[in-house]
Amino acid sequence: MEPKSLFLVAIGGAFGAVARYAISEWVPSEFPWGTLGVNVVGSFLLGVLIAMSIINEQVSPEILLLVGTGALGAFTTMSTFSLDVIQLIDSGKHMPAAGYMMANFALCPLSAFIGWRYIPMLFS
Description:
The chain contains 5 helices and no strands. By secondary structure, the protein is an all-alpha fold. It has one domain. α2 packs antiparallel against α3.
């Protein structure tokens, strides 16, 4: 593991974590709309980034580390999603918890697929 790689991931991660926190604070709600939003958007953007790197070879390994692993890895969050589910269940909101889980499990892979499959076609 090279120091340059660690630095790129750390810088990207700092940006992604701050962006996620800011969005969650900007969208205060009893339902975790902020976390759902960042997970869906982050999955879409990661799909676009990976597709551009594989299909068109337009993304350098350094950008993948900075943006993909660092920024988008910290922007999207499984741990906050898990905590949100536990808090919804603990407060007796079982149906919203189930809906939130289904939305994350359906929308995140779907948005990643759309980003991966269709957006790069616009740039080819």
